[in-house]
Each structure stands twice: as C-alpha cells, then as structure tokens.
Amino acid sequence: MSIDIDTARRVAKLARIKVEEDNLPALAGELSNILTFMEQLNEVDVEGVEPMTSVTPQRLKRREDVVTEGGMQHKILSNAPDAREGFFAVPKVVE
C-alpha cells in the first residue's frame, strides 16, 4: 500500500504532529514502508501456533492466598490527616 503526501499530511494532523511541507514526502515513504511490512506479516502462516506472552516460557509468580492479620484500622488511620467514623475524611470536591 502506498501513502501519498495528502494522506501523510492528514495523519500528521490527526496525530497532532507538526511536519514541515518539505518533510511530508519522507513521512509518506516511512508510512508506506510500515504498511508494507504489516502486509508481509499478514502473509505468515500462524495456523496452530499458540500465542505467546513472552519469548521465553515462564509462569507468573503468585503469592499464596493466606489470611493475614486484620484489624489494623486504627493503626492505618493514625497516619491520616483527617479521619472520621473509621474512614479517611477528604474535602468535598463535587457540589
């Protein structure tokens, strides 16, 4: 697919990127190269290939789901500049 100068100008405007008029042909060429590469990727046969989350197989680290000490509300709220009725108190922001 080939991108013309008018399309490159429109893409730059939509992306809110200031591109000088004399740089538009180069931008159009770069965008065309990117689209050509994407078209090449679409030609690759990926039938039966599992999706990967990483280039090396690895399992996410997980912590054990254990019950911890609760009941530290008073200790936590002692750090708050303003606490009322067991909650953090913040200024009203919506009228």
From TrEMBL:
In short, the EC number is 6.3.5.-
Answer yes or no on keyword Ligase: yes
Top-level division of the source organism's lineage: Bacteria
Write out the entry's keywords from A to Z.
Answer: ATP-binding, Ligase, Nucleotide-binding, Protein biosynthesis
**What is the enzyme's class at the highest EC level?**
ligase
Q: In this record, what's one Pfam family?
A: GatC
The Swiss-Prot or TrEMBL record describes its family as follows:
Belongs to the GatC family.
Under what name is this protein listed?
A: Aspartyl/glutamyl-tRNA(Asn/Gln) amidotransferase subunit C
